[in-house]
Amino acid sequence: MTFILTNDDGVDAPGIRALFAAVDGEGVIVAPQKHHSGCGHQVTTTTPIHVEQRAKTEYAINGTPVDCVRIALNHLCTDRQWVLSGINHGGNMGSDVYISGTVAAVREAALYRIPAIAISHYRHGSREIDWDYATYLTKKVLAELFNRALVPGTFWNVNLPHLEPGAADPQLIFCRPCTQPLPANYRIEDDHFYYENKYFDRKRDMASDVEVCFSGQIAITLLGV
Prior knowledge:
5 helices
């Protein structure tokens, strides 16, 4: 299969290298030159977008994740079969999907009726992510999802849990997205508001992707445009 790989953490992020390894190097990387986390479905339309070809199957785009997908689908890799985005350094579940550049990339693919999967890795506290293990889990997820038909205009959103070393492999749980808001707490100094957020303390619906991922399982949700 022909894969387009992108992300919102930037072309040099370890997550996209882990994703590339999960597809055994069969993908074409078309990713932002720099970090675009939280950019949502932002696109570039009023300034030129520089495209740097770093290798035969790697492009660094001076634009957003959605810019990357648009350019890849229409110019760089027109024989694509899947668009894969990630592995994001941090969770993208529930209401996160509306601000996530990682998820926006596959939403754009879904608008083109191209099957797509966003993969994110929840990070708990200050512990670093084991990217080799993330590759292993992603391989399992992809093996499952590639065998499931997608209705045009829909896409998969996957969140890997952050497990303690030596923990048992997580299960794949198909679930619904959480409908609760993200924390909106601010520290106020004079007339400045500083956003302060404890991600794990967010509200969650029972049996939703947030609850599943936080409980140590792989949360998989089906979303639509």
